[in-house]
Amino acid sequence: MRIISGKFKGKRILPPHQITARPTTDFAKEGLFNLLNNKIDFEGIDVLDLFAGTGGIGFEFVSRDCRSVISIEQNDRHCNFIRKVCSDLKISNLTLIKTDVFRFMKSSHIQFDLVFADPPYELENFSSIPDLVFMYQLLKNDGLFVLEHGSKNDFSGHPHFVEHRHYGNVNFSFFE
Hints:
CATH superfamily: Vaccinia Virus protein VP39
Oligomer: single chain
CATH class: Alpha Beta
Largest sheet: 7 strands, mixed
Structural class: alpha/beta
Helix content: 25-40%
């Protein structure tokens, strides 16, 4: 896993073998961030990274000078790894919250410019995530929500859906 661009460009981050998360592939990350580059100015935005896993997406946002990144992850090993990388890279604008994503969404009173979610593809209530992001008003008025998912999910009928892209086996649906 590597950071694609920004101040940490090219930095390799090697998660330990006991990490069970499925990191977004470098190919998919590069495609996603090329697309996002044309949609938003990263500098000064606030980002929420749901189901942070190894933290790769959050580190990518930090590397591009986002004002703040809040990463939500429940797994102890994943949290320890994210903390270690933050320490190694001296990252101060990424806040890791160890909790259940659904509990966080329900209780959060913060709005974000961009929300990214990469839940486990087999998560039981996977398809409810876009509805919850909008129900709990996690996005600012002109905010963007990006959901990473497998090929069996289709969100094109969602009222906030705007676009779908795929990079290899990785799919992204965009909502505004």
